[in-house]
Amino acid sequence: MITLFVLLSEVDAAHRQVVRGQLEALGHRVDEVARAATIETVTEGAYDVLLTDGDADGLARRLRGSMPRALLPHVASIAEPVASVIELAVHRATHLDDETVEGLEVITDGAVDELLEELFEGTAKSLETMERASDDHDTLRRAAHSLVGTAGVCGAFGISRACMGIERAIAREQVDEARVRIAALREIFEATLAHRKP
């Protein structure tokens, strides 16, 4: 199972309670904001999914214009079936971005497999470091930070977002949150590897 981090924005109380219950029953983590989600809120939370009762398309456009693609959450309307939204978000978190990988093929002159192998080896090492050093905030932050950009550039957006979430949790001194996010990173990494293998 993949644990996703979900932000509910502008969702009325009745919907919020139902959707939160559905998501939490599936093992996902849920935060809420009563107002429209700001770019800062979304960036700070390193969310995988943003569900809104507001203008989902407009919000998605604003986010695309101000955030790196690797860190963009899947933005959806609260009116969409939760299972479909989660399915799309899990796919995005656990599969390499095709467009990014195709671009890497061109600029690496066909050596993208070697580059991705380096990414996966580095991710495995950094993840082991994070799991061992769960109380060493500096080591955790450095290990997570080293993967945010690398994973994003290689199209491993779920890994990048998970590492950003770990880094942000440590910055806020939320050690329990960081541990949950490290476990989620392990899930995402293993699923990404499984999908990558021929």
Note the main attributes of this structure.
Four Helix Bundle (Hemerythrin (Met), subunit A), alpha/beta, 2 domains, about 10% strand, 9 helices, four-stranded parallel β-sheet, about 200 residues
Would you write up a description of this structure?
The model has no long low-confidence stretch (mean pLDDT 89). The protein starts with a strand and ends with a helix. It is globular and about 50 Å long. The chain has 198 residues and is of the alpha/beta class. β1 (5-9), α1 (13-25) and β2 form a beta-alpha-beta unit. α8 (157-171) packs antiparallel against α9. The longest helix has 22 residues, at 175-196. It has two domains: 5-94, Rossmann fold, CATH 3.40.50; 98-196, Up-down Bundle (Four Helix Bundle (Hemerythrin (Met), subunit A)), CATH 1.20.120. Strands 2-1-3-4 form a four-stranded parallel β-sheet, sandwiched between helices. The chain contains nine helices and four strands.
